[in-house]
Amino acid sequence: MSRSVATHPLRSLAIYCADIGSVQKRHFGWARGGVAPVAKVRAGARISALARAIALDLDAGRPVALGLECPLFVPIAEEPTDLTSARRGEGNRAWSAAGGAASLTVGLTETVWILRAVRVLLHGGVQPFLEWRAFWRSGRGLFVWEAFVSSTAKGKTHAGDAVIAVRRFVACLPDIAQANAIKSNAVHSLIGAALLRTGWSRDLSLLEMPCVVIKA
To answer: Number of H helices and number of E strands within the chain?
Structure first.
């Protein structure tokens, strides 16, 4: 990309991450940061507070990058024996293995809840993006990405994991697409389905679109 974030409309980008987990058992946490590497990152544990904070940023005209730490798309392999294989780039933490499968299951409901809550709180229309370069060109809207905090990088709390993911996203700017850690061709997009389900878009091609995965 020809311009740095400092000279681009995304210089006001608000970067969020939600560590997906049981709200009832207090296994949910979130964080918010800014573009500058030294920008203060604040964290929280209430899913409703996350939705309100995102809506406030969007209503203020700030572009938002929302990371969710759970698998947001799954590969659709040609060979039946490969249907539960790891996505390329996951290593030994396959989306279908114990931890990945658990966070995917919880994420099916929590991603929809967050997106629905934010949309209800908004006072105007906001365009969603799964593709970084389109978001970059627009300089506004909601960009959704998958956070992948590996076992060696994990923090001591759920909010701590979200902070780690936000800082990793900042470190990967400006070319987030280049930092994408997982490549898949044919996919079923869980986040695309969530965007459709919550009325953010009517574009059915989202069901086949992977999102960017930022790995810490």
So the answer is: 5, 9
Determine how β-strand 128-129 pairs with β-strand 187-189.
unpaired
Beta strands in 55-207 (DSSP E): 64-69, 73-75, 128-129, 142-148, 187-189
Other CB atoms within 10 Å distance of the CB of residue 186: 10
Assigned token pair, 81: 């024996």
**What is the Cα–Cα distance from 113 to 120, expressed in whole angstroms?**
11
Nearest CA to 110 among 63, 69, 157? Answer: 69
- Tens place of pLDDT per residue across the chain (216 aa): 445 776 777 889 999 999 999 999 999 999 999 997 667 899 999 999 999 999 999 999 999 999 999 999 999 988 999 888 888 888 777 888 878 889 999 999 999 999 999 999 999 999 999 999 999 999 999 999 999 998 777 878 999 999 999 999 999 999 999 999 998 889 999 999 999 999 999 999 999 999 999 999
Written as one letter, the residue type at 153 is A
Q: Are 28 and 95 in contact (CB under 8 A)?
A: no
pTM: 0.93
Nearest to 128 by CA among 64, 177, 184: 64
